[in-house]
Records
---
Amino acid sequence: MKVLIVDDEFIAQELLKGFLESYDAIWNVAINGIEAVEAFQLALAQRDPYDLILLDIMMPQMDGHQALREIRRIEAEEGIGGTDMVKIAMVTALSDAKNVMEAFVKGSCGAYLTKPVYPEQLHRVLLDFGLVDEK
């Protein structure tokens, strides 16, 4: 499983990396939305797309909502849709209805995790996305 972790907080990055180790996941890290979109585009160009993007909302330069919309725009331009779209889970401290609805409705994210994230929560998302089998 190839994962892009997008978070400007080092501790959050390390926590997610630690959780993903038990799944033999390969990961890259981006610290803002601009880097996330660039990493996504590069992976597509190399025909080695990400299986999952764990995307924070509050980041400098380009926030997670903007990055999510840009990734979905790129997929639409490339004719990528439905189950072929990258799985995206928002991982954020923001749990208010406005942010949750914006992520799901405007951005078509598939999951929303509120920090602090626990291994069981991430495992449930990976199961729901079909990226792992039940352990």
---
Amino acid sequence: MNFLSFYYTHKPGGFCKRLYRLLGALADKGHTVTYLCLDPPPEHFPSNVDIQVLPFPVKRRRGALFWGIFFLLIPLLLIPQVLRNRPDRYVLFSPVYSALFLLARLVHSRPLILFFRSLPFRINRITKQPAWVLFFSDLIDRLGVTNATTIVCMTKAMKSELEAFLGKRLPSTHILPNEVTIQNLTRAPRSTPPFTFLTSGVLDHRKNISFLLQALEDIDPLSYSLLIAGDGPLRASLEMDTKQKGLQNITFLGWQTNLSQLYSQVDLVIHPALHEGVPNSVLEPLGHGLGVLCSDIPELSELIKHKDLLFSLDDTQTLTNQLSLFTSNNDVRKKILLASQEVAQRLAFDWDTRATDICLSQAA
């Protein structure tokens, strides 16, 4: 079978990592896979996937000029690519890209499998985008869903929220979370402070790092240190916030390509996000036997299913209390660690096989 996919350029993080994995898994099964992009992907891109770089007149990959030309030109550039490759199926990882294939699918109508990694309409509202951005983004999301024949959501909560946004039931739908890759579940909790906390991800409003910083204000500074791995638009203001709060035992590490090298020194991962798909920044440490605490939002509560590993976002005191107990009570540390390891075992499965089966299924 012949598959075609498209994403504009490589970005660090779970989105591209998961997309590349799926394309490589399909190629490993003997299928022809073509990847369209504006820039050559990184060296770790699957070698058995055919890369076709589209000519594009604007070199800078951000800003109003780039995106304006992108949305006008890309639908036209896709048509000759589709006619040349004659794919049996389209595999895309965002409703934006599904919408871009509207014209191409009129020319060469084949099933389109759309994987949702997060909900753009939720993110845009969390990050307080202007009304005109919300209007056009929502329109594109609706067009993208309409153009898809199969929708793959990461959780049931994501599917329900997407249906509420659309005001209708989705067509053929699959639920496929990210998986935990088990590396080591034999860790035991350390018994003496200071304990090292870790949070990671793009530093924007969605990740809600300011909530964590506020919760740490009432924690004994001698009992912990916090590592913040990641970069993004809020990094400078978050660094300023830590100074104003007098939180001196917090280190901003910048973007880390390999977080696993930090896990041996980490005692607890904290993820205070306002909205998520199924974050690798939680799943990866779970696979290394680390304890996690996550915000009690629908997507994460469905994934974690353990009240001792969740904290409310209604106020910071709940998280403050949980972290105080973690740093002062060995039984609490053991309980969080064991519960996290149980979650890791439950979420260990072969994601590549499930994802490729969906792409090959008759429902697509």
---
Amino acid sequence: MLVKYKSAFKKIAMGLLSYMPDLKDIKTLTETIHRYEEDEKSKLYLWKKDDDFVGVIGFTEQADGTRLLEHVCVNPSFVPKVLV
């Protein structure tokens, strides 16, 4: 289930986004989260499986109405039962 990002999920979202190589630096990671919090055209959702957040997806709406997928991160320790 996708859950819309809210500030209560900040640490969880930052942890999931930090799996991306470009977001290992805390300054860049903080700026990215801040953009999702402040820019109404940028949306961030967390993927919840059972009681755990296991992934995050973020996109930005472009001027022409299309959406640019910017981030997709999944906790590497999460392996869906379908794949096992």
